[in-house]
Amino acid sequence: MNVGSKIKKIRQLRGWTQELLAINVNLSTDRIKHYETGARVPKPAQLEAFASALGVPTEFLKDHDIDTCRDVEHVLLELESTFGLEIEEKDGKFTIDFADSELHSFLHLWAKAKSGSNTDSESKKKYELWKADYPYTHTKETEKKIKEIQRKNKEAESKK
Length: 160
Prior knowledge:
The protein is mainly α. It is 68% helix and 8% strand.
């Protein structure tokens, strides 16, 4: 998916019009249309402005140039070399995992977020937003858990 398609996707998931996005990034609506159709590609500073306005990491909007199966194959081989990607075949199905604990934890979070995402359009939308917001989503969830623990600790302290 190219940069413009990603901008359009997140804009629509957020329920924004092109006009609203244009206001938030200080551009004309025509310029937004050009970016979304791929007629123009945002420069790095503009890409950061889009990411900030849409509330997603800049990395999500970048074009990673993975357009063919061959591209995917080479990315997987590079992931094996760089991050210890492990692959296993069992009963004709393949599973992947990482020796790297951070990536292993990410796979766990991803599987959790994806579970149930095929049940209805609202859960699909929630999952798409999770993907776009990552790692912000994970950070928000962690902060929420910390606040809950702190709240429980305060309650426990006040009961003493």
